[in-house]
Amino acid sequence: MTLAEILPSLGALDPLPRGGLWPEGTRVGPDGDLLVGGVSMSGVAARFGTPCHVLDEPHARARAREFRAALPEAEVLFAGKSSPVRAVYRWMAEEGLSLDVCSAGEVEVARAAGVPGARVLLHGNAKTDDDLKAALAHGVRRIVVDSPAEVDTLGALCPAGQEVLIRVIPGVDARTHRAITTGVSGQKFGVAPEALPAVVDRIAAHPNLRLVGLHCHIGSQVGRVAAYEEAVRRMVSLFPGPLTTLDLGGGFAAPYRPGESTFDITGLANRVRIALRQECAARRLPVPNLLIEPGRAVIANAGLTLYRVVAVKPGFVAVDGGMSDNPRPSLYGARYAPRLIGRASGARRVPTAVVGRHCEAGDLIAEDVALPQDVHPGDVLAVPATGAYHYAMASNYNMTPRAAVVSVRDGQTDLRVRRETISDLLRRDLG
Ligand SMILES: Cc1ncc(COP(=O)(O)O)c(C=O)c1O
Ligand SMILES: N[C@@H](CCCC[NH3+])C(=O)O
Question: Would the CB of 220 count as within 6 Å of ligand 2?
């Protein structure tokens, strides 16, 4: 069936697709409004303005618990870069997750959220002295060394006994977008297997550093469980001797459009657990503590973004945000599934491109989505799956103030990050 054949058969209130795209418990009201966490989304748009990022707190917490339940023997670290919001770091810590950060800024969000350094791990391919100093000042327990030279820089700054891991390139192709494929040679992260022994020796020779394990991260928006199994086997084969820690990184995929599936966390747990035991037994190594660093798979589908329609042309609906709050279409060719909220429409559904307000033809959010033909300026659109790497990667392109972040739960709304103002932006411009 083609889209054109399906469109006229849809009713005035299109059902929400199943499968984890929207936060758990999201409902369509009889008036076409969308209720998330018991809160009216058109009400949120009216009260907080648009664009507005909304996070469903119970959904985020439930996904965090799911990871812990699937891998009770592992330490689950929330990838803080995916949603550097104090409340989110706090929820994750309350659910028993640790935190992975990669900059002084993320360390400070962790500190402000009350996440103790003992539960934080720092990584990054080009950590500045400021990043390292911020981490050490907060007592960050583990730091992932990404290059040979970093051993000396870190060793000179840190106290005796600093726990370190080494990020290694496992040579596993995650088969995701090239810009976020990080487990193969020819990209900037980690130490090649052949360079590993020299880095191990350099750490061993440093009085302040204590090597506890190896780290890898094969990429992001990875759908294949088998890629992680492969990574476990490769990583254990690279162990220079018994180590207490194997950090497999994150990257577990999230659905962005109807029909895409939620990552199989239980499948991951089973296959990784077996691979780890087998590989360690074969090499007569003790089984190390397993660490994983999910970001997107925890928080992406807890989030949605509300936009107001500003302009309409045949085939196009333009909204009051775009690549400044969502650079993912331009970076990775990502596409989303917006829906009209706030009113029911019986108008014919027509294939529509939802585009942003920025000065580039590539500034689009969705192509070929079935929207009612009568969508007009002032309408509100809701876009699911925006909880990860949206607020985190927002920019001020075209001097656009960044959007607010609001969280909802049990009918309650909390403003977590206030909307930026043009005065905020001008204050930095000293003339
Ligand atoms: C080292 C590391 N860990 C964890 C993550 C989290 O990735 P994701 O949000 O895709 O789970 C990233 C980002 O890809 C990363 O670079
Ligand atoms: N920012 C990317 C993923 C990179 C994750 C960080 N290593 C995204 O939105 O898909």
Answer: yes
- Give the integer Cα–Cα distance in Å for 249 and 252: 9
What angle, 0 to 180 degrees and rounded to 10, lies between the N-to-C axes of helices 129-137 and 148-157? 50
What three-state secondary structure class fits 353?
strand
Look at residue 2 in the predicted model and tell me its pLDDT: 44
Question: What are the backbone angles phi and psi of residue 13, rounded to the nearest 5°?
Answer: -120, 95
Tell me the H-state helices in 295-345: 296-299, 328-332
CA 400 – CA 384 distance, rounded (Å): 22
167 C-alpha to center of ligand 1: Å?
A: 13
Nearest CA to ligand 2 atom 6: 220
- Active site amino acids: 359
pLDDT of residue 12: 63
DSSP strand pairing (349-355 vs 364-372)? antiparallel
Question: Domains of the chain, with CATH numbers?
Answer: 3-56+300-427 (2.40.37.10), 57-299 (3.20.20.10)
Instruction: Report whether 14 contacts 32 (CB < 8 A).
Output: no
- Residue 162 Cβ contacting ligand 1 at under 6 Å: no
Give the ligand at the shortest distance from the Cα of 249. Answer: 1
What does 251-300 look like in DSSP terms, one character per residue? Answer: -B----STTPPPP-HHHHHHHHHHHHHHHHHHTT-PPPEEEE--SHHHHG
The alpha carbon of 15 and the centre of ligand 2 are apart by a number of angstroms equal to 30
End-to-end distance of the chain based on CA atoms, in angstroms? 59
| Kind plus residue range of the DSSP H or E element containing 214 | strand 209-215
Per-chain mean pLDDT for the chain: 95
The CA 208 to ligand 2 mean position distance, Å, reads 33
| Ligand 2 in reach of 83 Cβ (< 6 A) | no
Q: Is 100 in the pocket of ligand 1 (CB under 6 A)?
A: yes
CA of 228 to the centre of ligand 1 (A): 13
Q: Is 431 annotated as a binding residue?
A: no
Distances (CA, A) of 124 to 133, 156, 252: 14, 18, 19
pLDDT tens-digit map of 92-133:
999 999 999 999 999 999 999 999 999 999 999 999 999 999
Confidence at 338, pLDDT banded by 50, 70, 90: very high
Closest CA to 361 of 332, 329, 314: 329
- Known binder of ligand: residue 389? yes
Ligand showing the shortest atom-to-Cα distance for residue 122 = 1
